[in-house]
Amino acid sequence: MNKEAEGAKVYWRGVGKLLPSSLGFKGRKKRVKNEDPFNVALNIGYSMLRKSVYSAVVSVGLNPYIGFLHSVRSGRTSLVFDLMEEFRSPFVDRKLISLARESEEKIKNLKEIYSIKFEEDLIYTQARRLANSLLKDEEYRPFLSK
Q1: What is the pLDDT of residues 62-84, one digit of tens each?
Q2: pTM score
Q3: Phi-psi region of 108 (alpha: psi -120 to 50; beta: other; left: phi over 0)
Protein backbone atom coordinates (compact mmCIF):
# COMPACT_ATOMS: atom_id res chain seq x y z
CA MET A 1 0.00 0.00 0.00
CA ASN A 2 2.96 2.31 0.59
CA LYS A 3 4.03 1.90 -3.04
CA GLU A 4 0.51 2.74 -4.18
CA ALA A 5 0.58 5.94 -2.12
CA GLU A 6 3.95 6.90 -3.58
CA GLY A 7 2.70 6.21 -7.10
CA ALA A 8 -0.42 8.28 -6.46
CA LYS A 9 1.67 11.27 -5.38
CA VAL A 10 3.66 11.10 -8.61
CA TYR A 11 0.50 10.63 -10.68
CA TRP A 12 -1.34 13.59 -9.15
CA ARG A 13 1.75 15.79 -9.38
CA GLY A 14 1.83 15.00 -13.11
CA VAL A 15 -1.89 15.73 -13.46
CA GLY A 16 -1.32 19.07 -11.73
CA LYS A 17 1.25 20.01 -14.35
CA LEU A 18 -1.31 19.38 -17.10
CA LEU A 19 -3.93 21.67 -15.57
CA PRO A 20 -4.12 25.47 -15.69
CA SER A 21 -2.48 26.76 -12.50
CA SER A 22 -5.37 29.14 -11.94
CA LEU A 23 -7.55 26.16 -10.95
CA GLY A 24 -5.51 25.85 -7.77
CA PHE A 25 -5.17 22.05 -7.95
CA LYS A 26 -2.71 20.89 -5.29
CA GLY A 27 -3.33 17.17 -5.65
CA ARG A 28 -5.60 14.65 -3.97
CA LYS A 29 -5.18 14.38 -0.26
CA LYS A 30 -7.11 12.07 2.02
CA ARG A 31 -8.77 13.59 5.04
CA VAL A 32 -8.36 17.09 3.62
CA LYS A 33 -11.21 19.07 2.14
CA ASN A 34 -10.19 19.47 -1.50
CA GLU A 35 -12.45 22.24 -2.73
CA ASP A 36 -10.68 23.46 -5.86
CA PRO A 37 -12.78 23.06 -9.03
CA PHE A 38 -10.82 20.11 -10.38
CA ASN A 39 -11.09 18.11 -7.14
CA VAL A 40 -14.80 18.86 -6.99
CA ALA A 41 -15.15 17.59 -10.57
CA LEU A 42 -13.14 14.46 -9.71
CA ASN A 43 -15.37 13.75 -6.71
CA ILE A 44 -18.49 14.04 -8.87
CA GLY A 45 -16.96 11.93 -11.65
CA TYR A 46 -15.90 9.19 -9.24
CA SER A 47 -19.37 9.17 -7.67
CA MET A 48 -20.94 8.72 -11.09
CA LEU A 49 -18.46 5.95 -11.91
CA ARG A 50 -19.15 4.26 -8.57
CA LYS A 51 -22.87 4.15 -9.39
CA SER A 52 -22.20 2.51 -12.78
CA VAL A 53 -19.76 -0.03 -11.34
CA TYR A 54 -22.13 -0.85 -8.46
CA SER A 55 -24.92 -1.59 -10.96
CA ALA A 56 -22.62 -3.80 -13.02
CA VAL A 57 -21.33 -5.74 -10.01
CA VAL A 58 -24.83 -6.40 -8.69
CA SER A 59 -26.16 -7.30 -12.14
CA VAL A 60 -23.65 -10.16 -12.48
CA GLY A 61 -24.55 -11.51 -9.04
CA LEU A 62 -21.48 -10.47 -7.04
CA ASN A 63 -21.55 -9.11 -3.51
CA PRO A 64 -20.42 -5.47 -3.76
CA TYR A 65 -19.30 -5.42 -0.13
CA ILE A 66 -16.61 -8.13 -0.32
CA GLY A 67 -13.49 -6.89 -2.07
CA PHE A 68 -9.89 -7.87 -2.63
CA LEU A 69 -7.88 -4.64 -2.66
CA HIS A 70 -10.01 -2.43 -0.45
CA SER A 71 -10.54 -3.65 3.07
CA VAL A 72 -13.93 -4.96 4.05
CA ARG A 73 -15.71 -2.54 6.36
CA SER A 74 -19.34 -2.35 7.35
CA GLY A 75 -21.27 -0.48 4.67
CA ARG A 76 -18.29 -0.08 2.32
CA THR A 77 -18.73 -1.38 -1.20
CA SER A 78 -15.19 -2.74 -1.35
CA LEU A 79 -15.61 -4.78 -4.55
CA VAL A 80 -17.05 -1.72 -6.30
CA PHE A 81 -14.00 0.31 -5.29
CA ASP A 82 -11.72 -2.52 -6.47
CA LEU A 83 -13.30 -2.66 -9.92
CA MET A 84 -13.46 1.14 -10.17
CA GLU A 85 -9.66 1.33 -10.11
CA GLU A 86 -9.51 0.06 -13.69
CA PHE A 87 -11.74 2.88 -14.92
CA ARG A 88 -10.79 5.95 -12.89
CA SER A 89 -8.05 7.22 -15.16
CA PRO A 90 -9.54 6.51 -18.61
CA PHE A 91 -13.17 7.29 -17.80
CA VAL A 92 -12.91 10.16 -15.31
CA ASP A 93 -9.41 11.63 -15.00
CA ARG A 94 -8.67 11.89 -18.74
CA LYS A 95 -12.05 13.37 -19.58
CA LEU A 96 -11.80 15.97 -16.82
CA ILE A 97 -8.21 16.88 -17.66
CA SER A 98 -9.29 17.46 -21.26
CA LEU A 99 -12.24 19.53 -20.12
CA ALA A 100 -10.07 21.66 -17.81
CA ARG A 101 -7.47 22.25 -20.52
CA GLU A 102 -10.17 23.16 -23.01
CA SER A 103 -11.77 25.73 -20.72
CA GLU A 104 -11.42 26.50 -17.03
CA GLU A 105 -15.05 27.55 -16.98
CA LYS A 106 -16.18 24.12 -18.22
CA ILE A 107 -14.53 22.37 -15.28
CA LYS A 108 -16.37 24.73 -12.93
CA ASN A 109 -19.72 24.11 -14.64
CA LEU A 110 -21.52 21.26 -12.88
CA LYS A 111 -23.73 20.64 -15.93
CA GLU A 112 -20.58 19.86 -17.93
CA ILE A 113 -19.35 17.46 -15.26
CA TYR A 114 -22.67 15.65 -14.92
CA SER A 115 -22.90 15.28 -18.71
CA ILE A 116 -19.81 13.04 -18.82
CA LYS A 117 -20.73 9.66 -20.25
CA PHE A 118 -19.04 6.36 -19.45
CA GLU A 119 -18.77 3.41 -21.75
CA GLU A 120 -20.99 1.33 -19.51
CA ASP A 121 -20.82 -1.71 -21.78
CA LEU A 122 -17.10 -1.95 -20.95
CA ILE A 123 -17.86 -1.72 -17.22
CA TYR A 124 -20.44 -4.51 -17.49
CA THR A 125 -17.99 -6.60 -19.53
CA GLN A 126 -15.39 -6.29 -16.77
CA ALA A 127 -17.92 -7.19 -14.10
CA ARG A 128 -18.81 -10.33 -16.11
CA ARG A 129 -15.11 -11.17 -16.49
CA LEU A 130 -14.67 -10.83 -12.75
CA ALA A 131 -17.71 -13.00 -12.04
CA ASN A 132 -16.52 -15.66 -14.50
CA SER A 133 -13.09 -15.58 -12.90
CA LEU A 134 -14.52 -16.15 -9.45
CA LEU A 135 -17.34 -18.51 -10.29
CA LYS A 136 -16.04 -20.44 -13.31
CA ASP A 137 -12.31 -20.26 -12.62
CA GLU A 138 -11.63 -18.36 -15.86
CA GLU A 139 -8.56 -16.17 -16.11
CA TYR A 140 -9.31 -12.53 -15.28
CA ARG A 141 -8.19 -10.05 -17.94
CA PRO A 142 -8.00 -6.49 -16.65
CA PHE A 143 -9.42 -3.60 -18.63
CA LEU A 144 -6.83 -1.96 -20.83
CA SER A 145 -7.58 1.51 -22.09
CA LYS A 146 -6.56 2.63 -25.54
Answers
A1: 999 988 776 666 768 999 999 99
A2: 0.90
A3: alpha
